[in-house]
Design a protein that fits this description.
heterodimer, A: 176 residues, mainly alpha, Rna Polymerase Sigma Factor, Chain: A, 8 helices, B: 253 residues, Phosphorylase Kinase, domain 1, 2 domains, 7-stranded antiparallel beta sheet, 20% strand
């Protein structure tokens, strides 16, 4: 990485940095932890820079998200063996909510319940749900990000939604 | 299609990910299956609870600053533990290799991105149309006055498509006609230029950022349809447009 590639870095920044919000959101949902998500995104961006010469244009967001997703999985494999991740997300209150004061209380309670339910989904279902519902990726883009056939995307997304509905129903029963 | 087969496609149906034929079969089944109709309504209500605005995690501003600083410092791996490199070698090379080979990641000629960008700009702009008319007798002469050619302007009124109007756009240093149609909730931009007038590679069928592109040759013209409607619907629209363009042009034109 000698001098003279400042232009390359600037080009990379123009391509990659607009997608940092999507990158952070995905990492945050996969890691379920703020500090880890930030580290994963930072690492993923540096990896993306290394691979930038292989990037030939196209869907930059999906390109970056795939690297983020891989970094996050690597990170989980190393730092958080299954079972060590707390199911209850302690940072729920820290995230942003709808601003309208009239509906803020109701929607905050509803959003918190939904957020909690998504957090409980198994990782492989959670990530496809996030990519579809929050990042609005097509099945084809999701398939590229998670490196799986489109049929797998379809069935995982269906299972994720089934599971999510079941968790929300169970929560409603428990609270009533 | 059996009941169970339809059920397994309903999520993809909601997401507008079915091809035209499967979508029609699902719709035919829904008309006489209250069970699937109820299931669909319940699913939509579940998805309605997923408010992305409230549930996305906002990017911490200091993270952007941290990343910019590290990029500028040009010290790759600064502050990272050595095991990252092992992980990088193990996990990423395979993934990136597969990624680069993946068919979804063909190099994208600029023209495709340009077409989609032009369509997005048109959607976002407060006046996507310079000549607002559903009458091709108004639109066609206007375009002929603005351009060095006279593009086909099918009205398509009888097939659920409405001609909203037209504007002149600028692609690859070439002035092109941009016709705007409405079909259901979707708009379709149709870019038309004389065959061979553009030096850029003509785009083949593609999907970019959720927009589908279909290229068709109609008489002496190249036309590219760009829309966020499903690929199947757009293909059907494209066929109606091409057939109508051929019918209205006639041999004498």
């Amino acid at each position: 990485m000698a001098a003279g590639d400042g232009g390359r870095t600037r080009r990379f920044e123009a391509v990659a940095l607009p997608h940092l919000p999507a990158a952070y959101n995905l990492a945050r949902w996969i890691c379920r932890n703020e500090a880890d998500a930030a580290d994963v995104v930072q690492e993923a961006v540096m990896r993306a820079l290394q691979y930038f010469d292989g990037y030939r244009g196209g869907d930059a967001r999906a390109w970056l998200l795939q690297i983020v997703r891989n970094s996050a999985h690597t990170w989980i494999g190393r730092n958080r063996p299954a079972g060590l991740v707390p199911l209850v997300d302690t940072e729920v209150e820290a995230a942003g909510y709808a601003e309208d004061p009239m509906t803020a209380v109701a929607s905050r309670a509803e959003s918190a319940a939904v957020r909690q339910a998504i957090t409980r989904l198994p990782l492989e279902q959670r990530e496809v749900l996030i990519l579809r519902e929050f990042e609005d990726l097509s099945y084809r883009q999701i398939a590229a990000v998670i490196d799986s056939p489109i049929g797998t995307v379809m069935s995982r997304l269906s299972r994720a939604r089934d599971q999510l509905a079941a968790i929300i129903r169970a929560e409603q029963r428990a609270s009533s | 299609m059996t009941h169970d087969e339809v059920r397994s496609l309903l999520d993809a149906y909601i997401d507008d990910e079915l091809d035209l034929a499967s979508g029609l079969m699902v719709e035919a089944h829904l008309q006489h299956c209250p069970e699937c109709t109820a299931w669909l309504a319940e699913r939509r209500s579940l998805l309605g609870q997923l408010h992305a605005d409230a549930l996305r995690y906002p990017l911490p501003p200091q993270l952007t600053a941290r990343i910019r600083t590290q990029l500028r410092s040009r010290a790759p791996g600064m502050g990272l533990q050595p095991q990252w490199y092992a992980a990088l070698a193990a996990g990423l090379i395979v993934a990136i290799g597969a990624f680069l080979l993946g068919r979804a990641w063909q190099p994208l000629p600029d023209l495709r991105a340009e077409l989609v960008n032009a369509s997005v700009r048109a959607v976002l702009s407060s006046h996507p149309i310079d000549v607002l008319s559903s009458d091709h007798h108004t639109v066609k002469p206007w375009l002929s006055g603005q351009l060095p050619f006279s593009p086909p302007v099918p009205e398509l009124n009888e097939q659920g498509d409405t001609l909203l109007g037209a504007r002149v756009d600028y692609l690859d240093s070439t002035r092109v006609a941009a016709l705007l149609y409405q079909h259901g909730h979707h708009q379709i931009n149709v870019y038309v230029w004389p065959r061979g007038a553009m030096s850029a590679v003509p785009p083949v069928n593609a999907t970019v950022d959720g927009f589908h592109l279909i290229t068709v040759q109609a008489q002496a013209f190249t036309a590219v349809m760009v829309s966020d409607m499903s690929a199947g619907e757009l293909a059907a629209f494209c066929e109606r447009w091409r057939a109508s363009a051929a019918a209205t042009a006639g041999p004498g034109h």
